[in-house]
Amino acid sequence: MQKSLLLGVEAIAQGAIDGGMSGVYAYPGTPSTEITEYIQHSKQAKELNIHSDWAANEKTAMESALGMSYAGKRAMVCMKHVGLNVAADCFMNAAITGANGGMLIVVADDPSMHSSQNEQDSRVYGKFAMMPVLEPSNQQEAYDMARFGFELSEAFEIPVLMRITTRLAHSRAGVARFAEVMVQNELKLPEDKVQFVLLPAIARKRYKKLLSNQEKFEAASEDSAYNTYSDAADKSMGIIACGLGYNYLMENYPDGDCPYPVVKISQYPIPRTMIKKITGECGKVLVLEEGYPVIEEILKGYLEKEAVIGRLDGTLSRDGELTPDMVGRALGFKIEESLEIPDIVAARPPALCVGCSHIDVYKALNEVIAEYGEGRVFADIGCYTLGALPPFNAINSCVDMGASITMAKGAADAGLIPSVAVIGDSTFTHSGMTGLLDAVNERTPITVIISDNESISMTGGQKSSAKGKLEAICEGLGVEKEHIHVLLPVPKKHDEIKEIFRKEFEYKGVSVIIPRRVCVQKNVRDQKIKKASMAKTAAKA
Amino acid sequence: MKTDMVIAGVGGQGILSIAAALGSAALDNDLYMKQAETHGMSQRGGDVQSFMRISDKPIYSDLIPKGGADIILSVEPMEALRYLPYLKKGGYVVTNSTPFINITDYPEQEKLEATIKALPNYVLIDADRIAKEEVGSARAFNFVMLGAASPFIDVPFEYLEEGIRKIFARKGEEVVDMNIKALHAGRKFSQENR
């Protein structure tokens, strides 16, 4: 059968569509965005009437997915690793309510922080919630595991976490699809009418059930086709390789002739029998994990009685993603000497696009801030974070979605007046609104600049939940109408923009300034689509 | 049959179309392939790369090991040098000579060319000029570059033509022909100037 050429993220999307999913819920975030985009553009998904609209944030996405699971249907929710922090309240409790229809939670981690603020390992969250975790090592497994995840979720009545990392997410390979597409579940309410009612008395029972189910989850890991033990003659060392770690191991033995016993893990909880066997038989154990040393730490123990090597003892780097040559060195291979990067090669960091509206905002802001003294601009997550780099050097913080407004508030409470928040339109509706309410309720003297480019641009121009709603939201939250300004960020308005900044910095209450101009990249894409559709219409006529 | 290639450029230059044509060529001929690419933040004018691996045997790693690439194909001269640690001994650097300057400390053109010309195996090609003057479309420069790398890619040349045909089929005969012409122009230059 002809294989499809799919990115890891696309493989998950196609696997979920073919696996009987009724809806996907997500907020964009690299490297997870294309899972949902693939479903949005899939003709098959459209014909099957699969829900795929973007959610306002990861928490609302996960709750909606849980609601769909409650109603008996298969639901998937996708996010980047830090998105799981936002959704963690629902996530932890969903392990207690359990699932009705299959629920798959796909979280894409970003070790080496290619496009992220940290490199947290979502497998730790899986253990925290005591949920089964799947960690595909290649695109085919990613495809297969989407359906398997739904099945596992329904068999054990619990959401299942699928953890992937950047390299799998954004790497393409041929994927063989199932011969048949599964039919979606019928609407079917949970048999236990109070399963999802986490009153303490019920939650205690549900929690005990989750605890007693751990044995079953572990047994499933032992029997899983995704976890394997391959024996070999040289017992001086055993290797435990998780997810992508397995690929980097085998890359060093292209003919499949690894001389050491190997446990490959792609399903958690950890398959205890396999681990006992390999640690019992081998002199020492090398653990290859993409992310935190999760298994390594458990095996090694606080008292370090076991001979375990990996990220903790320096055999592998403690941070960053694994690479085939790093694993090769850990296996004792000499890496062939290669050329160095010549000194003349300059760094080429990402930058704001030519003509970007954020540039006009920062140019005006920098000049006005200079009048007050620097160190008072709290920014957020999005393209405008690039304002931290030269030539702007315009911002003093970027921490988490929405933190600009609340950090500005805290700093103003401490006496840093004026304090300024810079946040994007979508980030504002993701997590900025509640912080603005805090400020309004206390009349905190802050100025919030919602730099509105009418799209979620950093991740590729997805639809912003904020579109057409910002003034109404701010007014509704109680910002005074005369302190809400909408303006056009273009060079010829430079002085006008500065004037408004100055005026509102002086105001001893909450001001919101909304520079609004559509993202230049989105504009180009929209024009192309418009042109194509006009050509189509013309051809028909 | 096995080729590991780093495809390099700057976000927005469209290196992924090169990878797409190669990927399609590999898959349609029952070869194994893996192709890792850059998404997200770096796409905003930063350096981007794609690791392209094609083989008649299963491929494990999505990343090419350091010292493992047969070819560095770069659509921008400075970016070619950024990936030298990945080049295998005896491997080829095939790079466009037209710089993409979006930073203030971009190296001097002469020094840059001298550094490339000091490499043991290289093809330095003005793909922008060839695309414009010989092919008749500036946008085809990516496939001039693929053509220039083709003598070193261990995949039959016809497969590459098929790959281009397939990925541009939707856009019509004219676009297909233009890009195939670009492929041939690049290949010819490379064969004459390696």
Automatic annotation (TrEMBL), chain B:
InterPro entries, per database record: IorB_Oxidoreductase (IPR052198), Pyrv/ketoisovalerate_OxRed_cat (IPR019752), Pyrv_flavodox_OxRed_cen (IPR002869)
Signal peptide residues on this chain, from the entry's feature table: none
Domain Pyruvate/ketoisovalerate oxidoreductase catalytic: 11-187
Keywords of this entry: Oxidoreductase, Pyruvate
Source organism, top-level taxon: Bacteria
Pfam families xrefs: POR
UniProt GO MF annotations: oxidoreductase activity, acting on the aldehyde or oxo group of donors
PANTHER family: INDOLEPYRUVATE OXIDOREDUCTASE SUBUNIT IORB (PTHR43854:SF1)
Protein name, as recorded: Indolepyruvate oxidoreductase
